[in-house]
Amino acid sequence: MPVQTSIQLFTVREALDADLDGTLAELASRGFTAAEPYDFVHRAEPLAAALKANRIAAPTGHAFLASTSFIGPDGTTTTRAVPAAEAVFDAAETLGMTTVIEPYTDPALWQSREHIADIAQQLNAAAELGAARGIRVGYHNHAHELEATFDGKTGLELLADLLDERVVLEIDLYWVARAGIDSPTLLRTLGDRVIAVHVKDGTLEAEAVAAYPPADQVPAGQGVVPLAEAIAAAPALEVAIVEFDHFDGDLFGAVEKSRVFLEETLSEKAAV
Hints:
This protein is α/β, with parallel strands linked by helices. The chain is 42% helix and 17% strand. Strands 1-13-10-9-6-5-2 form a seven-stranded parallel sheet. A hairpin with a 2-residue loop joins strand 7 (149-150) and strand 8. The two termini are 14 Å apart.
């Protein structure tokens, strides 16, 4: 099956909060036929209606399944009540979603094997619940899972070793580069478990990456992140998702440029 292109809706979060239907209509006009919702449990029904009206599918989505913490716009980590797994899967069903992905876990948890094992246990338990409803569970990385190492193995690889075979991975290629890891090598190591990637580019200039959200991100193909090489190294890829954490310019223009780059890259992958 061809790889599906998508967009993480966190990219357009301010526009989405101001005008749900209008923002999705704009994304549709820019060529997107799929999107990845975030924080979707409390707004599943209106979001599902707006997606359907604009002919946008939601095969994947981000929701907390193994964490009670999240990173705020200012970079601070806070704690809040999160919906129970069953509520997450109820909302996923409403949206027609087949994969729910844990978006973030506290960096402090990646300093010990015991804490990583606990994350794996929670994901495995969620996967058991999801499997009964035909919904997969996955994990999305930032840099800290790769900056942590144990006997020469990254924390993310250690997690993968502990996961039930039903748990999948969504690799954020920008954060892999931020961690100083070669993404094609990582993707070949993780193999068929990687079913999704976040296609996010940047200049990785030191001053710009020191900001939160990062100030170095650019349309896909215009930075130094090896996106095409990483995508070529992912044998089981199902969906490739455009994302920006922050962009000062024409955001909708930037996501459209990223989609075009992504679709050209996927065409080349398919031709090989």
